[in-house]
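Notes from hallway chat w/ T.B., transcribed later so I don't forget. T.B. wanted the structure written out for a chain they're using in a teaching module, and asked if we could keep both sequence and structure tokens in one place. Agreed to drop them here.
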Amino acid sequence: MISGIGIDIVHVDRIRRWIENQAILERFFHPDEIETARSRNKGMALSLAARFAAKEAFGKALGSGLAHFALKEVAVVNDQLGRPVMRLEGAARREYERHGGGTIHISMTHEGDNAVALVIIEKEH
């Protein structure tokens, strides 16, 4: 049963401006996300923009927004097949569990100046 759906779009130039500011990157992104994005060289801004959109979409899918946890506690990483998965830590994990947990499905894409993410939270019956 679907318990929440969230979608978000991020203008890539917004993230491009953050790349030179390590403090901003560390505020919004998990260290694993930063490392992965840096390995993509010119694709760093696209990678981070899609992950930022996924974090925002996650807050919308929860229904409580992002007020109860730090964005860097939500890590959007890739599994062995390259599929994006969400790893939650600290207050983000507690907020997710408070809302009943479940399975998180993520889809991310980017085209030109925009990155989009969709998050669906599915609970068992």
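Follow-up for T.B.: Residues 2-122 form a domain with the Ribosomal Protein L22; Chain A fold (CATH 3.90.470.20). Might be a good example for the class.
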